[in-house]
Amino acid sequence: MEHINNFIIYLSSSIHIARIFQTRSKTLRLHAKKTYEMVCQLFEELSKVELSLSGNYLFLNGERIKFGMEVMGRYRALIQDLKTLSIGSIIFTEKPVIDEVVSFAYILGKGLSSNIRSFERLEMRLEEMGVRSIRIEPLEDSEEVKEGLVRSVRKEAIKNVLDSIYFLKDVADGSIKDINVSRRLVRRFSELIIEDRGYLFALTTIKNMGSYTLNHSVNVCILSLGMGVELALSRRDLLELGIAALFHDLGKVDIPETILDKPDKLTNLEYEKIKQHPYLSAERILFLRGMDEIPIYALRGILEHHKDFTGGGYPDINIGKPSLFARIIRIVDSYDAMTTPRVYQPVATPFESLKYIVLNKNVYDPSLVKVFLNLVGIYPPGTVVQLKGGKVGVMVSKGYVAVVDKEGTLKNTDQNITIEGAISADEVDFDPASVIVALGYSEDTSSL
Hints:
53% helix; alpha+beta
């Protein structure tokens, strides 16, 4: 996996460096040499090396590349470059010589910096410069292939959500005492955010998988990681943020349900018990195996997630501002809680919840609120929207609406739709969450 990631990194950087350097440049040759070395490593294991593009995914010899967060930027850049140059595949038919790799990067780099980006012109230049062991094929992506890729990623997203809920349940009842499973789940969520952020966020509208606490905790983990990616946090920080968010409310399983689900106002004593859950959550995670590798920042995120931006809230601990992780979780925790039906509070629409968060500047960090707004948009995924012409739909991601007809049947997205505003889910005869789940298994995802 590591040498595949390095292959992506050095190939992408070589192409970009070639936009401004000539073939004799030491800088270009250094990066091209690294690319050459990665190709040679791949040939030690494979009979051919074919990097292909389909949709928004890269494949090596037909197998989708699952990249780590450290290569995310280069992965995205390479996809965009290949699309710009109309290249669908780069095929190393045999081990190249280093001069061929230099020339190849140079031709693609100059193609990006030029207004003339003809695929035929690229092929001709490769032949002119003597590049024999590397050839390119045009980008010809079928709708059927793209639909299959979309379905595959969405099914994986649903599975990771369910696996995370089951994992938390096992931790809560004591059958799992190891934190390492959560590392894998959080890392996969981070990758899925890159692969299909809109759909993964839309899955957080599902509020009835397992208990409220467990379902809510997974939703908060997903949205917190989304903010972390938006803030360009490091891979290590994303892992710690995701673990803090996943476990932030686990202590509530130690509080009687008669208090958690009480429809009437809590007594002072009952409220004091509720205020203990950050401590209880931190205590539970401390006793899991593998916690010695989790730094204090993750624990602070759990302990402080009910502290206000200006210092109010609970628990009563002597700090200035809560930590970054806590401030992120504070926003996402409130948003998901407000958009979830509870016996003691009416459910708010995503739009109403965002408005409340924006207006309460003493509670939520205004700079992070802006990040969250940019992340989910004015109509967050899962929002039921009224469309021009009387149709209704469910937001899947920015710019994509799943249209639902009067019989509750899911239709293709109409590319010419106009959103007139958000409406309450109580005003329609279908469950928005069921629409989101259906998209994960739909055979027709081409326009969703």
